[in-house]
Structures are given as structure tokens and as C-alpha cells.
Amino acid sequence: MSTLTGVGVSPGVGVGPAHVLAYEATVPDPDSRHGGDAGDAEAELARAGRALERVAADLEERGVRVGGEAREILQAQAMMARDPGLADGVARLVEAGTSAARAVYEAFGHYRDLLAAAGGYLGARVADLDDIRDRVVAVIEGRSMPGVPTGTGQPYVLVARDLAPADTALLSPDVVAAFVTEQGGPTGHTAILARALGVPAVVACQGVTSIVPGTPLLVDGASGLVRPEPSDDEVLRAREAAAARKAGQASAKGPGRTADGHAVPLLANIGGPRDVAAALEHGAEGVGLYRTEFLFLDRAEAPSEQEQEAAYLEVLDAFPGGGVVVRTLDAGADKPLAFLPPGAHEPNPALGERGVRLFRTHPEIMDTQLAALAAAASRSSARLQVMAPMVATAEEAAWFAAACDAAGLPSAGVMIEIPSAALRAADLAVRAAFFSIGTNDLAQYALAADRQLGALAGLQEAWQPALLDLVALAAAGAAERGRPCGVCGEAAADPALACVFVGLGVTSLSMSAPSLPAVRAALARHTRQQCHLAAVAARAASSAGEARAEARSHLPGLADLGL
User: Fold this and answer.
1) Residue 488 annotated among the catalytic residues of the structure
2) What pLDDT digit, counting tens, does each position of 400-449 carry?
3) Domain-by-domain residue ranges, the chain?
């Protein structure tokens, strides 16, 4: 079988026989009903309540057993199972005659749709919800969930369609040499736990579950390569490359900079205060993207100014004297908010009233958020910068900057994620104090490729030359007005692409915290001129694959680092 490729999310090399975990959750019959009278409804509701509590207690117990970051993640999952809104949804469905198992399945579906529509960091939480739902349904139906095998005699490579955090938290490098999943992403809790536990891991590896159980596998958790039946020489080379990566990353310390001393601040993307510890651990110089949606989604009332202020201040205080870039609420028809009146039906929410456009329709939401940010900034020594998502025109940039000025926030920037903003970047920079390029949405709109549609993943590739052209235009427009221009998103986590971005004129890079050491090491091995030559070569290419190959030919230090 040929080598498979996925997304490496936890570095290291693991070798062992494949143990394929085959499990498909059952979907309760949509027509499943209970007897219909009050007694039956009460009994069904009690069954659902006991199952939810049993799963919540099990998640808590697992977290206590493992401790550390796993405990926080599993406690958060237990809170999901005990969510009062979820219980109310289950009760309404049961009272209408739905069986307990089906009611739980449908109630979770509402929350699942909210997170899936959000995409990115929040979308990665969908897998957590699915796992809790499936565990509760299994308890109601008297079935057991599959466990990760132990005591097999030798470390094995665990292969699965996906792994739940509850199972991942119990993995040990002494038992599991590595794991590979067909689904998942770099910001999911499963990936986070793999890194915390030190288990090499690859996710989004299509076709891996078709591997015959027992097949020897070589897994490289940094490159994302999965090699069935590797030779001894292949294993040796992989381990040598992993050692080189580890040594190279350990040697690169301090602020991000190129080999000739050009400063490139390396920042962390976070989804809330709980992500701060990882950012600090991996040497983030600040926060380049603080997603604030976690405060707003899945609640009946908007968060108060005081609640928001506390959440912002906790992050600001973690970076005294450093910079923290907060993205204002990015919501709309694709991420509906229960506390706002429903707007008109939008046949294509990605092109509808979202981001800064929503603020213009509901200025009270913006005013409260900006006031909370200003209050938090007044109590911290960190440098707060605020940016608006989905800005398309210079007029929108000026409108947002004026709103920030009125709130006492002097540094107002904009996300560059719509092609028009990149094309007219110099005009937006008249009022915008800085830019941050969101490559996922920019690719979606530039190549007409829905970011949620797996079949079009190739068009979402950040190496697409057309996307690199837009990044170059945005950086040039910013430079023309003397404004900084960063990239926030996992495209910046690719060490080779990070060098290319610097060569295109990008001034800072923000990514998930565990990716920072590799990017820091890659920049430290190359001069600014090498980065420029790599960028020129990538833009001259005619395909994403060619752009990557041409850029790497100008970045020899990547091979030395085993990247």
C-alpha cells in the first residue's frame, strides 16, 4: 500500500502494528415514539436525564484520572452534557412524544449546527458534541461504547475514523505508539490532547481505515506521512528527521526573526482564556487573533459588558506589555445568535449579513463589545488592538474605525478576507490601523470554493498562486500607508508558507500555539532575501503543488530541520 498523507498534529515518530478501531454510532429511528401519556413521557425523560448525568460523571472521572489539560477539556465536555438548555430541548421533544434516545439526538443536533456553521476553531468542537451525544444514546439503549485496547503486548498504532477526547485522554505512549484518524483537524481537542500527552498523531488522513489490521505502520506526526510496511531504513530516516526537527526547534529561541535579524512577531490564535497557557508555553509574543464568538453563541441573552470585560482582561493580563488583537463578533446567518431577531432568509449565508455588516444592523451589540474592550484595556498594560471581520470596502473600514474612536479604542484594524479588500488595500489603510489576513475565507471567496465542502479542499489550499497574489496586494497596500499587515490562521503554521508570507511583505504571523516552534526555527534558518525569492517563485507557479515545490527550492534550511 502506498504512503498516505494527512495533517500532522503532534510531532514524533511512532511505529507499530495497526489496530483499526471500527465503530459506527447508531442513529435513533426518527419515528421512535414513546407511549404518549404523561407517565410514559416522565419515564422517558428520567431515562434521558440519568444517561446525561452518567456520561457527564464519566467524563469528569476520566479528567480527574488524567489531570492537566485533559482535565479541563473533559470538564468542559461534562458541562455540555449538563447544559440546562440541552435538558430543556430534550424535555420539549419528549413531551411531544419523541423517545428519549431520539430526543437526545435531535437536541444535540441544534447545538451541533451552530458550531458547524461557525467553522474554524468553533467548528472543531462539533466532534466533541457528537461524542457526548453518541455516549448518551448508547447508555439509553443499553449499548457500550468501544474502548481503546490495552495490554496488547507491544505498542500499536491506533487507526480510527475519529477519536473522542474522552478516549484520547487515556492514551499512553507506552501502549499507543501513534494514532491516525480519517477525520479531525489541528485545532480539535483530540489533536490538543495528543500534543499534551506526547503521542505522535496524524489526522484527516483519508483512506487510513482501509488498512488491514496488524499491518506495520510508520507514522510521522510532524510531516503527516503514514507509511504501511516501512523498511528498517525508512524507519531510521524518519527517526533521524524527527530528532533533527526537535533539535532545530529547540535551538530557535526568543522572538521571531529571520536569519539576518528581520523581526517577525510570532503570535497565537486563541478562542478564549483557556488557550492562554498553551500560547505562553510555546513562546507566543502576543495574541494575533482572539476569537470572541465563544461568548455569544448558544445563549438566550447577549453577554453583559461586565462578562465580556472579564474575559478580555484575563487574556490581556497574560501578556503585559505585549500585543493582543481581538476580532469583534463574527456572526451572521451562518452563525445565528438566538438573542437576535431572525433576519431575512439568506440563500447563501457566506455572502450575506455577517461580520461587520451585522454590527451595522445591530449597533447595540457592537457598542457593548467595544465598551467592554475599552474597559479591559484601561485596566491592563497590554496593547489592545481591535479588528472587524468581513470588511469589503474603504467606507466600512472608516465606519468601524470611527466607532472604535468613539469608544476610546485608538487602534482599529480590519480583517482582509474578501478579495475587494485585498485589491483596494491602500484605500482601506487610510483609516484602518492594521490588517490581518484571514486566508481561509479569502480563498473561499477568491476561488468560489465553499470552505465547508471537503470535495473542494484543493481549492482551499493556501499555496494557490491566486491567493498568494492577493496576500501580496494586501501587504503592499498596507506598506504604502505605513501599516502593519499580519496573517492569522493555520496557513501561517506551515513553516515553508510562513517564510513565503514574510517574502510577500507580511509583518507578523499568528497560528495555533503548538505550531510556533517550527515556524520560529524555519524563519531563523533563512534570510529575508531567501524568503523573498521563495515568494517570487511561488507566485510564478501555475498550481498549488508547483508553488510549494518552487518555494521550498529556495528554502534549504527546511530540510536541515527535518521539515
Assistant:
1) yes
2) 999 999 999 999 999 999 999 999 999 999 999 999 999 988 998 999 98
3) 4-23+146-229, 38-140, 256-560
